[in-house]
């Protein structure tokens, strides 16, 4: 039987997600996007908008390919209201310890490494070549950008975004709704939501 998937979000990130879907054996891939000017995404068609999800329910798997954590949460809630369970997608080159727990809707990109006893929430993005070390807890809608290193026993709160190449040292807690900007090095707990940048990372007022 054909393996079919609907990807919500026809962007550059969507193209990367489509490739992971293909490598996971999906032979029918289509996109939905609320921007009606989009007709295709990479090699795949944009077949409608998020209002069209019901017509694919039951026959297709679903995944959201939207980098913005708030929008991803909104769409994820919409799928839940429709009783649509999202799939998870893991690139075959990612190295994931067998004890890792991953909730629905999460995508793990090429060459990511996720070590022992990590817990990853709903609709997270673990982007290309990032590493999440032992016993970290990532809450729902976290996005870890390419090349980020998260050391062991770190917790990252809901909807926090970690920008490209940032480093988080071990045994820290970062609260919900933070933007850790590109290249930042987080060396202390982050207890207040906001933007953090630099080495060591400081709140940007
Ligand atoms: C969050 C981000 C987009 C903000 O960029 P921005 O809108 O240009 O930032 P602001 O306008 O608030 O601030 C600009 C100032 O901060 C500096 N700045 C911006 N990002 C910085 C960073 N990551 N580290 C240090 N300084 C930074 C700029 O040089 C500028 O300084 P100036 O005023 O002295 O010229 C950017 O910091 C970032 O992290 N981008 C990474 C994107 C990424 O990870 N993409 C991968 C997605 S998969």
From TrEMBL:
InterPro entries: AcTrfase_PglD-like (IPR020019), PglD_N (IPR041561), Trans_hexapeptide_repeat (IPR050179), Trimer_LpxA-like_sf (IPR011004)
Superkingdom, taxonomy of origin: Bacteria
Protein name: Acetyltransferase
PANTHER family: ACETYLTRANSFERASE, UDP-N-ACETYLBACILLOSAMINE N-ACETYLTRANSFERASE
Chain sites annotated for binding substrate: 11-13, 33-34, 67
Binding site for acetyl-CoA: 143, 164
Pfam families for the chain: PglD_N
Active site residues according to the UniProt entry: 134 (proton acceptor)
Site feature: Increases basicity of active site His: 135
Domain PglD N-terminal: start-end pairs: 4-79
């Amino acid at each position: 039987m054909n393996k079919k998937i609907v990807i919500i979000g026809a962007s550059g990130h969507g193209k990367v997600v489509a490739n992971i879907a293909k490598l996971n054996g999906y032979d029918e891939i289509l996109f939905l996007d609320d921007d009606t000017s989009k007709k295709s995404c990479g090699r795949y068609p944009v077949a409608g908008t998020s209002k069209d999800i019901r017509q694919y329910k039951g026959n297709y798997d679903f995944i959201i390919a939207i980098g913005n954590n708030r929008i991803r949460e909104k769409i994820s809630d919409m799928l839940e209201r429709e009783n649509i369970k999202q799939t998870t997608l893991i690139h075959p080159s990612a190295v994931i310890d067998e004890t890792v727990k991953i909730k629905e809707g999460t995508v793990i990109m090429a060459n990511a490494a996720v070590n022992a006893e990590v817990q990853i929430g709903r609709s997270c993005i673990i982007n290309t070549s990032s590493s999440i070390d032992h016993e970290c807890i990532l809450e729902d809608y976290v996005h870890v950008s390419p090349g980020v290193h998260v050391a062991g026993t770190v917790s990252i709160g809901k909807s926090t975004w970690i920008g490209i190449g940032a480093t988080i040292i071990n045994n820290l807690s970062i609260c919900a709704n933070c933007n850790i900007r590109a290249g930042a090095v987080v060396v202390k707990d982050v207890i207040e939501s906001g933007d953090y940048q630099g080495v060591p990372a400081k709140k940007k007022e």
